[in-house]
Design a protein that fits this description.
The protein has about 290 residues and is of the alpha+beta class. About 30% of the residues lie in helices and about 25% in strands. It contains four helices and twelve strands, in the order αββαααββββββββββ. The relative contact order is 0.10.
Length: about 290
């Protein structure tokens, strides 16, 4: 056994040389002396250096994404985070739209929608129930009765009754009426199709009382005029005025568009309310 070990060590320590000759002149060009132990040491060191360099390349550079397990792990983490953010965003948008819709319903004298509480998909909460007090109901009825469709907070506004045919209403937008006033189908407005980027004009002088965006009706602007007249313009692509701005008759207030889920194409949804009651704009404006 000891003899075999000595022979193995002797072979490892045996010296060799590698000589390279020129093919044509047979002149020696390179000579390399080594033992088997040296050769194993050199090869092992070279392999170790290459392994370290490759590891650093995959750890500190984007080449790590080429590994199937690493790539799938990163994508799964990003998809999970994006799903959480998307769920939260959808919830916030739904709550905001419901809030704006109820504000609009109060301002326009419509029935208030009672939405169920929107529960978070990640947590479970105890169901909360809210009830209106007697005093709250009386105050709400009084305010709705007094302020129905009367959105102006500006003093010294002309109120009372007037023959609307004596007023000069500006055409809000030049176009074709495609959907008329139809109270039986709850369409309290007319739809006017016009050229893209056509400016929407204020039909009368007044004050902007609402300029907002709704998921279903897009960009909306509402103007309070004299004599308890309110004009409403929906589905605009952008608004040129903000709440509180005073506008003159015929002044641009928005740009016609196709915003909102209820819109079926570029058009203006135009409403006129008088003393809290919707009226047919075509009875007073020649389109």
């Amino acid at each position: 056994m000891a003899k075999k070990e000595n022979e193995f060590l002797k072979k490892l320590k045996s010296k060799y040389q590698l000589v390279v000759y020129n093919e044509k002149s047979l002149q020696e060009t390179f000579r390399f002396r080594f033992t088997r132990m040296n050769l194993f040491t050199y090869l092992g060191s070279l392999i170790l250096i290459i392994a370290v360099l490759v590891s650093l390349l995959f750890v500190f550079t984007p080449f790590g994404l080429l590994l199937p397990s690493q790539k799938n792990s990163e994508l799964s983490r990003e998809l999970f985070q994006n799903a959480i953010l998307l769920d939260s965003l959808k919830k916030e948008i739904r709550i905001r739209d419901q809030y704006f819709e109820n504000i609009q319903n109060i301002m326009l004298g419509r029935k208030i929608n009672n939405y169920d509480n929107v529960q978070d998909t990640s947590y479970r909460h105890a169901r909360l129930e809210f009830t209106r007090s007697k005093h709250d109901s009386i105050l709400r009825q009084q305010i709705e009765k007094e302020e129905k469709q009367n959105l102006s907070v500006i003093k010294n506004k002309k109120t009372g009754t007037i023959n609307l045919k004596n007023l000069h209403f500006f055409v809000p937008v030049k176009g074709i009426v495609t959907n008329g006033f139809d109270p039986e189908n709850e369409h309290m407005a007319i739809d006017i199709v016009a050229q893209p980027n056509e400016p929407v004009l204020a039909t009368l002088e007044g004050t902007v009382t609402l300029a907002t965006w709704s998921l279903t009706e897009g960009y909306i602007i509402i103007i309070q005029h004299n004599y308890n007249i309110v004009s409403i313009y929906k589905h605009n692509s952008s608004l040129l005025k903000k709440v509180g701005d005073h506008v003159t008759a015929g002044e641009p207030i928005a740009i016609i568009g196709n915003t909102g889920e209820l819109s079926t194409g570029p058009h203006l949804h135009f409403e006129i309310w008088y003393n809290g009651t919707p009226i047919n704009p075509e009875d007073y404006i020649a389109f």
